[in-house]
Amino acid sequence: MADSQTAAAARPRRSAEERKVLAGTLVGTTIEWYDFFIYAQAAAFVLAPLFFAPLAAENAPLAQVVSWASLGISFLFRPLGAIIAGHLGDKYGRKMILVLTLVGMGGATALIGMLPTHAVIGVWAPILLIFLRIVQGFSAGGEWGGAALMSVEHAPRNLRSTFGSYPQIGVPIGMLLATAFMTLLTSSMSEEAFMAWGWRIPFLSSVVLILVGYLIRRAVDESPVFKEMQLRKKESAAPLGVLLKSHKKNVILAALIFAANNAAGYLVIAFFASYGANVLGMSRESTLVASFIGGLGWLAFTMLGGRLGDRIGKIRTFQIGYGIIILWAIPMWFLLDTASLPLFTLAIVILTIGLGPSYGPQSALYAEMFPANVRYSGVSIGYAFGSIIGGAFAPMIAQLLLNRTGASWTIGVYIAALAIVSFVAVSLVPKSVEGSDLHVDEAHREHLAAHPEDAPLVEKAVRPDGSH
Question: Which of 124, 230, 348, 424 registers the highest number of CB atoms within 10 A of its CB?
Answer without folding.
Answer: 348
